[in-house]
Amino acid sequence: MIKPKYLEIKNELKQQIVTGKFHNGDRFYSESEIINKYNVSSITAIRALKELVQEGYIVRYQGIGTFVSRARKEKIVKFSDIEIFSFNNDKVHVLSITRENKKQILDVLKLTTDSYYYRIERIREADKIPYIYHKSYLPEQYVNPNYPDIDYYNSIYKRLKLDYDVDLNEESFIETNEILFPAPKNICKQLKINETEPVVFQTKLTSLSENNKPIEYVESHKKWNFYKIQLLSNN
User: Fold this and answer.
1) One domain, residues 15 and 127
2) Per the domain annotation, does 9 fall within a domain?
3) CB-based contact 3:48 (threshold 8 Å)
4) Under 8 Å CB-to-CB from 158, ≥6 apart: which residues?
5) In which domain, by residue range, is 33 found?
6) Domain boundary among 15, 38, 68
7) How far is Cα 139 from Cα 143, in angstroms, rounded to an integer?
8) Residues in the chain with pLDDT < 70?
9) Is there a domain that residue 98 lies in?
10) What is the pLDDT of residue 164?
11) Contact at 8 Å (CB) between 15 and 68?
12) Full-model pTM
């Protein structure tokens, strides 16, 4: 099937933006320049520019001109969660492992009402100072009910990798972070902080890429002064 001319032009112009010929904020081709460059009608030129505007690559200002968007969609931004401590002093303690079937969590894990999951509560410490309280929820088929001792699950990543050949780092996830102030009283007790201090509340839902079924849902509360984020763009 032959592509419409405006689509060919749009794709070529888009490639010029993505590969760096034009940078964010640069003046872009005008309608007349596209007409002359590609020997096309004004209708075709306008359609190509309109497509680029709709996809977020350029912006057009009447009477001023056309410019490359300062927030173009192809730009990759990496979000990093930076822990402010030495990993050499990091320890995890499992507090409890409980089999449950509460509707709220069943819905998050996309399980039926007659299904069960395991709730695993853990505390992470650095230099014997608690800084993260985790509650992890896993469908019961991914938890070994005959675990030798409670610390068998101090690393859920390790258990899923060794016991079920699932690498959580390779699966897709959705993560949200928000500040809670003041911190809930039960969290203050777990993290040994004052009730007037804030905490970072993080939720993370990881799903298997092969079928999009959730394999782990985690609720974490972090001490605010142990939390830092970094944003990196590709250029």
Assistant:
1) no
2) yes
3) no
4) none
5) 5-68
6) 68
7) 7
8) 1, 71-88, 230-235
9) yes
10) 92
11) no
12) 0.65
Q: What pLDDT does 215 receive?
A: 96
pLDDT of residue 24: 83
**Owner of token pair 């409890």:** 96
Q: Looking at the structure, do residues 56 and 136 belong to the same domain, yes or no?
A: no
Q: Within this chain, do residues 96 and 48 fall inside the same structural domain, yes or no?
A: no
Domains identified in the chain, total number: 2
Question: Residue 90's pLDDT is what?
Answer: 80
74 in any annotated domain: no
- DSSP characters over 3-42: PPHHHHHHHHHHHHHHTTSS-TT-B---HHHHHHHHT--H
Which residues have a Cβ under 8 Å from the Cβ of 164 and sit 6 or more positions away?
A: 142
73: tokens are: 């969609």
The per-residue pLDDT for 226 is: 82
pLDDT of residue 132: 94
Which tokens hold the place of 123?
Answer: 């505390």
- DSSP E strands, 62-163: 65-68, 77-83, 90-100, 117-126, 129-139
